[in-house]
Sequence to fold (941 residues):
Amino acid sequence: MSHASLTPRRSSLRGATLPKWFPWAVAAASVALGLAVSAAAGLQSSIQWALIAAVCFVGGNYGVSARVEGRRQAKDRVATSLVWVAFLLAVIPLASLIWETLKRGVKVLDGYFLSHSMGVVSDTEPGGGIYHALIGTLEQVGLATLFSVPVGVLTAIYLVEYGRGRLAKAVTFFVDVMTGIPSIVAGLFILSLWVLILDMGPSGIAGSFALSILMIPVVVRSTEEMLKLVPNELREASLALGVPKWRTILKVVLPTSLGGITTGVMLAIARITGETAPVLLLVWGTNFINTNPLSGPQASLPMYIYLQYANSGGEGAAYDRAWAAALTLIAFIMILNLAARAIARWKAPR
Amino acid sequence: MAKRIDVSGLNAYYGSFLAIEDISMAVEPHSVTAFIGPSGCGKSTFLRTLNRMHEVTPGGRVEGKVMLDDENLYGAGIDPVAVRREVGMVFQRPNPFPTMSVYDNVAAGLRLNGSHRKAALDDIVEKSLRGANLWNEVKDRLNKPGSGLSGGQQQRLCIARAIAVEPDVLLMDEPCSALDPISTLAIEDLIGELKERFTIVIVTHNMQQAARVSDRTAFFNLAAVGRPGKLIEIDDTERIFSNPSVQATEDYISGRFG
Amino acid sequence: MDTTTATHQQTEPPTPEAGAERAARGATRPGDRIFLGLSRGSGILVLIVMAAIAAFLTYRSVLALSENEADFLTSFEWDPSGSPPRFGIAVLAFGTVVSSVIAMAIAVPVAVGIALFITHYAPRKLGGTIAYVIDLLAAVPSIVYGLWGALALVPHLNGLYGWLDDYFGWTGVLSWSGGPARSLFTVGILLAIMILPIITNVSREVFRQVPRTHEEAALALGATRWEVIRMAVLPFGRSGVISASMLGLGRALGETMAVAMVLSPVFDIRASLLEPGGGTFAQNIASKFNEATVMGQDALIASGLVLFVITLLVNGAARLIIARRKEYSGANA
Fold:
């Protein structure tokens, strides 16, 4: 077994190794170089110097390491630096998104903003608020939840507790398909049914129907997962006591998985709250307070953001309102998300 | 190329938990050394300190010296990657790369070091598979996935993969615990052949196995759960199993505990 | 969230109760019958809704297509209210594909990088925190991305556009005349940022499932960290990353509001990706619907049907890959 020519033996286990601070030094040098080049060439965009710095960082790591440590180590360092660059590249826009929303959103976000509509304010003037949009969002999302949760939970129960055979397979498949429907297509469907065929005008409830189409598959999926986590022993124990199956499901299975189902429903609500496209098609949006979801155009938070942006005429006042509404929307969704996770953790199966 | 291992004053930690304490021993080249002891006594942890695998576990860290001939594995400037190339390892459960063929599994370590010449590679793959007593069984399906073999064959494939890079030392962490008796026998025979070329250290739960395959046996024990594991004694296998010098070893071997 | 559904696909269903259906059929109790009826009814309702979506969209589309004088697939025109109506989806198909391709080209490598960062590079605590934050970012609604894209991202892109024009302008594909950066290229960047969290989350889950033993096998052969990733992590996670990308692609294809807010639409195909122009299926529907005539709405519905079919295929492919992956990953896990 001699293949010394193939795998040259290093006489020692010692490789020349660069010190621990080396990548940090390269990073610092790259940032400095990026800034210097930008200043020298008069580049105005932060994207440019960041890209220069990123290229220097990866290149510097490879060059030095290939000389000192050898090719394999150099490759390893390139991979490491690329992964770091990918991470930073992604963090910058995402952090900027949060930062801009916070910075520009807090300008007009106050009690007045939350409690007044746009009824007497023109889109280009300062003042006004999102009261009407809050009402619209709460009603539309509330109705959608009302439609989706029973259908979703019952479908999941069918799939887990009863479902065998072709019907269950078909339902599983089409729930999968439904999760992928673009929201605008869901909106188009309700529109072609509601407005074009039944000849009804725009209303909050039409929007809720479209939102339900987006919400049902999410509820089904998460509920299904939770029901599957309930151990069979529990069901059998109950059935063995002579409890009918439907009571077993209602009294044993559902309570056991209630925490998880609640989490899933809250995440689903968080998801549809931000949907704009179906609302745009079906509810239209308005500047006035409309508390009746059954008739007439209604506002909603995401729709409000869009209208303020689209009708601003480039005025700062409208942009400020759009950012404040975006901040409100994000806050609402984040609270739902965090609460959902808190419930999931608290109710986690032990 | 077998080398001698000399451990002195070795401690291994998981975070702040001291898992094994103050271990010193020598492992002779061209011999099989077996580690035995009750579960949790740190014999696997100790094995993993011999090729610096312990430190890949989150929180894992080591104090002390492990000399491989005249080089301290934990010395300054030592590259752990180079260490693992010199000290090969076979794991408890067979772990061939599932997406690679039998051939690619064996060649995996060689390719890392940049050998790509097909003919030479073919040669080493065949030699390694023969060395692992697997060649006749897989020569017709070298391009089939390694995960399609039986458990015993997979483990021998892993041994072939480990010896293909010609390490100095071969560490085996309970290599037969997931195998049936016939496969176990095949591996035990193989270990006897491999010691001609390598220094072998094997962790085993099975005392008959230790008695059958090893030249020297080390017994590890721990005072209580949550206390660090320690080396109780190391001696010729024959002596350990007939006339150990420590009472605890005799108790363990005769089945009085553990 | 999309991510939860996607990862759920990968968990094995537990062995169901044997003979549950038989037991249910044999049930004579009214309670049992009502309950089974209700839950089965809900399942059937889902099927009806899906069938209705397909049927209604097709019906309205056929109405529009039968009047259409232009070739629906290849025409560059969009004048459904004219007489005779002429409209085609070539521009929309081009815009949708181009913006999605740009988005995928940026998002997939970066998302894989972040997923690796979280699972294999970052210190454990930091990795967990980042994973959590990215999870939350997946919930940020697209309208907010749109607002941010239009008001914060677009002004920042002028420098980059200038560069691209300076160095690659000669290709014609990346030339720029200095207008606002509201082109398909910007849409691609914004979509990339939007689908990044989804792809990252699913990939991270897959990378985390890589059996420890495979990584140790590579380590014990003397592999560097990158070589471990190349030998053990990426091969194991490849199909997962592909299906994650498909889910991201599905979302990018159907994204409406963010595109509508960032793109300055010109219903035409421009040679340069940096010039305003083009449109996507979803954006076109959202910006034209409320002012459209009945014929115009039907034409838009026809384009929506095309989008529906495309996303169906993409999501179907993603699921097929996930299902295939289940078959062979179990052996040594």
